[in-house]
Design goal:
663 residues, six-stranded antiparallel β-sheet, 38 strands, globular, alpha+beta, disordered N terminus, eleven-stranded mixed β-sheet
Length: 663
């Protein structure tokens, strides 16, 4: 047995020598890279076991020698000088590799979901993107993008777009993160040092997938999910089979609990149903914004339409736009379509034989599994028609009734195959391979995917930041983009999941050391979760970094709530960061403030700027106890400081919000 084992080990070593005949490097180490200035930078790779590797750095002609371990890996730390370059690095294990055009400067990790991933040109097309690309010749800025990948275990290697670092130009910038670029450009223009930007982001992802397993195990909310992941089969086919099995079980449970079902029949889709107990709701729109605040579950919608006589016997097209999250759609009680996925347009065909003149009933069973739910598209995407005929709009008032609250059953299963939204998957595949490459700091634009669990984000975001720092072994600066305004403009004082998540981001920036916040509450778009003004996002991030990391004496934050005093019928709010005084833009009315008494009911408030304070009152609230500002998904707001930076949304109360207790 010993002879056989030794022979197998020898074959493995011979195979390793054959495969690793030439030194192999991470995509972090390529031509055009940026290394962190004035640091001991880890440098690593692979070659044959036991083989010596020699590195020579051209800035000081110093030679480093290290020997590969039995698993073929090697690592050495090299000393970097002040910012400058270009330089070269020679790596040799007998065969020589030379890395050219190397700069020494500051390296920033740029991560998050789609608003960080959104490119300057290509699919993103930010504001004025043609000019931005035409003027993007910044050879001192270098770009590296991590390819999307998932893993159940931490990985050492990753794939990079374009196989490594690229010199910033209109061509290389076209498909690179806009926020990262505008941040890096502002840093370069003011610090005059090379800047390396590493974009590792994935649209639609939750924060827990960017956090390590060992960190998440300290949060009870994720323990069961992590245990389940540990039991997950390795093959994608087995993962999908397990998911389908669990999905069938879950759907059976909701059919039993759903009041619109009886004996596996969609009774609320019947054409002769009496709707006297049904409410009215505007479609399109989210039902959380129309009387069902904080609700997740099943809502049934019904609308009676009239089929023209000339349409009888012709195939009918029913367009419902996007529905958040899933739907079952019925025509005169017959199921005609079912779609999963909140961004997928619903276009259903009704066979000619079912199309009769006169009244017809469309019923849509909407299943919302978290966050906002309902008809998510525009009014122009809601219509029915036959070929060649004018579209008949379906936008407007529909009847609705709640079928089931999701609290009554366990959360729906999710497929892990190709799905990044499980704990640690992206940390393992897209972050761990970058560690311990020395960096200056990190910028982060994420949170949209966690709004349904915003209160939990109070713990999750600082945990994730601390987790990254622990793995890197350095307490680097971390700058956060606060969520921009989105969805319909606020018309009344309401509760808001987005406001609660912005509050969690603000608290993290205020209380976790070496962090900062870029407020973007004034530059979002009501109809686009990916606002095109990424220039100001990058600049506001850079202002925070230039002030706090680079020590520039500049204004970097808008007004931040500090304290309040109740004075009779008025609440007087004090602020920090009132540089140049409090103001509104273009002398417009100060708006966005609401006030509540002991009954916790908020009313629009009168607000006046008094020096560095705002005095808030309302005739309907004789004894005020709480004030909120810009507290909505897309709030009214107009408070700035003299530097032209917007105030962060805030509240003076600590009353339980609509995401309290959600996991």
């Amino acid at each position: 047995m010993k002879i056989k084992g030794s022979f197998i080990l020898l074959l493995c070593l011979i195979h390793s020598i054959g495969v690793l005949a030439k030194v192999q490097l991470s995509p972090l180490f390529t031509d055009n890279m940026v290394l962190q200035r004035e640091s001991e930078v880890p440098f690593w790779g692979k070659t044959a076991p036991g083989k010596p590797v020699k590195l020579i750095t051209s800035w000081n002609n110093k030679e480093y020698v290290v020997r590969a371990s039995i698993d073929s890996t090697w690592k050495v730390k090299i000393q970097t000088p002040q910012a400058g370059g270009p330089y070269s690095i020679v790596i040799s294990d007998g065969d020589k590799v030379t890395l050219n055009n190397v700069l020494i400067g500051d390296v920033w990790i740029c991560s998050g979901q789609s608003n960080m991933e959104m490119s300057v040109g290509s699919s993103g097309k930010v504001a004025n993107y043609q000019q931005e690309l035409a003027e993007a010749g910044y050879p001192q800025i270098r770009l590296l993008s991590v390819e999307k990948a998932l893993s159940l275990v931490p990985l050492d290697d990753f794939k990079a777009k374009n196989r490594g670092w690229q010199v910033c130009s209109g061509k290389t910038l076209d498909d690179f993160s806009a926020v990262a670029y505008f941040f890096g450009r502002n840093i370069y223009q003011n610090q005059h040092i090379p800047v390396g930007l590493i974009n590792t982001s994935w649209g639609g992802t939750v924060a827990e997938t960017w956090t390590s397993e060992e960190a998440l195990q300290t949060m009870p909310d994720f323990l069961e999910l992590i245990k389940d992941l540990k039991k997950m089969p390795a093959s994608k086919s087995e993962q999908e089979a397990l998911y389908q099995e669990r999905l069938v079980e879950w759907k059976e449970k909701i059919d039993v609990k759903d009041a619109g079902y009886a004996g596996n029949q969609a009774t609320w889709a019947n054409t002769n149903l009496n709707e006297k107990d049904w409410g009215k709701m505007q479609v399109p729109g989210f039902f959380q914004k129309q009387g069902l605040e904080g609700f997740n579950g099943i809502v049934w919608f019904r609308k009676t339409i009239t089929i023209p006589e000339t349409w009888e016997g012709k195939e009918l097209t029913l367009n419902l736009g996007a529905i958040d999250d899933n739907d079952y759609t019925y025509f005169n009680g017959v199921e005609i379509g079912h779609t999963e996925g909140w961004m997928t347009p619903r276009i259903y065909k009704i066979p000619a034989g079912m199309v009769k003149k006169g009244k017809a009933v469309i019923t849509v069973r909407v299943i919302d599994t978290g966050g906002d739910g309902g008809f998510a598209g525009g009014a122009g995407n809601l219509y029915f028609q036959v070929a060649g005929a004018t579209q008949q709009s379906l936008a407007g008032e529909w009847s609705y009734r709640v079928g089931m609250d999701l609290k009554d059953i366990p959360s729906p299963p999710q497929s892990i195959a190709g799905n990044p939204n499980f704990p640690s998957l992206l940390f393992n595949a897209m972050l761990n391979p970058l560690i311990p490459f020395t960096i200056k700091g990190a910028i982060w634009y994420q949170g949209e995917a966690n709004t349904g669990r915003a209160y939990q984000y109070n713990d999750l975001l600082p945990l994730m930041i601390t987790d990254w720092r622990n793995h890197w072994g350095q307490e680097f600066p971390f700058y956060i983009v606060q969520l921009a305004n989105f969805t319909s403009l606020q018309t009344k004082p309401i509760e808001s999941t987005w406001a609660e998540l912005r509050e969690a981001q603000l608290k993290t920036a205020l209380h976790l050391n070496n962090t900062g916040l870029a407020v973007t509450i004034d530059i979002g778009e009501a109809d686009d979760i990916h606002p095109k003004n990424k220039q100001d996002v990058g600049i506001r991030l850079a202002l925070a970094a230039r002030a706090n990391t680079y020590g520039e004496k500049i204004s970097y934050s808008g007004p931040v709530y500090d304290s309040y005093i109740i004075d009779g019928h008025t609440i007087k709010i004090s602020f920090k960061h009132t540089d140049g005084g409090l103001k509104t833009l273009n002398s417009e009315e100060l708006k966005g403030f609401t006030i509540a008494g002991v009954n916790h009911e908020f009313h629009w408030a009168n607000a006046e700027i008094k020096g560095n304070e705002v005095w808030v009152s309302c005739p309907e609230v004789s004894f005020p106890v709480a004030v909120r500002y810009a507290w909505a998904d897309n709030p009214l707001c107009s408070l700035y400081n003299g530097a032209g930076l917007p105030a962060s949304p805030f509240r003076t109360d600590d009353w339980q919000g609509i995401t309290w207790g959600r996991k």
